[in-house]
Amino acid sequence: MRNLEGKVALVTGASKGIGAAIAQELAARGAAVAVNYSGSKAGAEKVVAQIKANGGKAIAVQANLADPDSIGPLVEKIVRELGPISILVNNAGVYEFGPIDTVNPEHFNKM
Questions:
Q1: What's the chain's Rg over C-alpha atoms?
Q2: 20 to 30 A from 89, CA-CA: which of 7, 82, 83, 100?
């Protein structure tokens, strides 16, 4: 089922967990995938290697999306290397570990 041929997907926070699984599924369906990471370059490169091993096309792209100045260069790199972005999966998030009763609106908005 390769119904995403010719599409370019950006998956934020895709170096592990749900983001990595989403990136792999989009690639399996034919999309070229930009695997975004903030700090886990090794994790992102592992996801890219898995996608390529399965015949897909992917690149790892570093950007801290909490920094608005990093978004333009991120998009420019993806467009230059893969083409215009047609799918965006906003998976990245910032979370703090702690008891649930300490979560407040600021924590929620930061996420």
A1: 15
A2: 100
The full 3-state SS of the chain, as one line of letters, equals CCCCCCCEEEECCCCCHHHHHHHHHHHHCCCEEEEEECCCHHHHHHHHHHHHHCCCCEEEEECCCCCHHHHHHHHHHHHHHCCCCCEEECCCCCCCCCCHHHCCHHHHHHC
- Cα(94)–Cα(72) distance, integer angstroms: 20
Q: What is the pLDDT of residues 9-45, one digit of tens each?
A: 999 999 999 999 999 999 999 999 999 999 889 999 9
> Is 89 within 8 Å of 95 (Cβ atoms)?
no
33 CB burial (10 A radius; 0-12, 13-18, 19+): buried
- Checking if the pLDDT of 94 tops 70, the result is no
Prediction pTM value: 0.86
Category of 8 on φ-ψ map: left (φ > 0), alpha (ψ -120 to 50) or beta: beta
Question: Residues in the chain, how many?
Answer: 111
